Amino acid sequence: MTLQTILLAVGPGDADRTDKLAETVLEVAKPADATVVLAHVFTEDEYNEVLGNLEMDADSDQVRPDEVASRHSTIRDLRSELDEEGIEYDVRGAIGDHGPTIVELATGVAADRVVVGGRRRSPTGKAVFGSTAQEVLLSSPCPVTFVRSAE
């Protein structure tokens, strides 16, 4: 199977693992000459908080989730890494529950692979995936690569 589109979905907990996420996506995208869709999924509360932090007017017709995502620091860091390597990418922003919204995005962009981050949920390692990662792993229309934080 040839990879054409890779969805890299990030959220509020991924700022500390952008290097590892970028490294993982580059390992897959570069040899396949695939396009990466950088997606930041916000809950309604997260979105409103980011709008405030970016001093954007929530009532403005020009404010769209894609624009908010493109200005978010995590996406900016990832864009910089992809630019350095000459990888084509598109930026998407979406508002909703993280897991189902990532699955909707993957379906909507016809992703061949989804990359998500996460962390170990218990010190004993019993619960490896969080609820978002688990939702994506179980419901994604394509294979999922899970990038665990170094914690």
UniProtKB/TrEMBL annotation:
Domain named UspA is located at 4-148
Q: Name one Pfam family in it.
A: Usp
> Which CDD domains would you find in this protein's record?
USP-like
Q: Mind telling me which Gene3D superfamilies this protein's record contains?
A: HUPs
Give the residue spans that cross the bilayer: none
**Superkingdom field:** Archaea
Spell out the family assignment given in the record's similarity comment.
Belongs to the universal stress protein A family.
Q: What is this protein called?
A: Universal stress protein
